[in-house]
Amino acid sequence: MTLIKTKLGWLRLIGLLEGISLLLLLFIAVPLKYWWNIPEGSKLIGTIHGALFLLFVINTLSVGVEYNWKFRQTTWKVLIACMIPFGTFYIDRKILSKMIDKDHLNQ
Fold first, then answer.
1. Which residues contact 69 (CB under 8 A, 6 or more apart)?
2. pTM, to two decimals
């Protein structure tokens, strides 16, 4: 898979996984915990989501440095996106996917 051969590709993959884990946490694990008193899902998915969130933030900063992103123009948008449900999907489509296309053209 050519997507994960670059740091930007890894960021996109981690963003996808982080976004899915956030949705699972919000729409499945949390309702199970509070409506049916089943906390195990939130513990497991919460831990996975936390790890993916940290990986996303670290990788965003790393890619931002490598690609010379201007913080006010790009980096903060990508960082904020991971805190909003569906945000990583939106930012992938509007910013990251366009960068990966340019990256492949330059190779």
1. 63, 75
2. 0.86
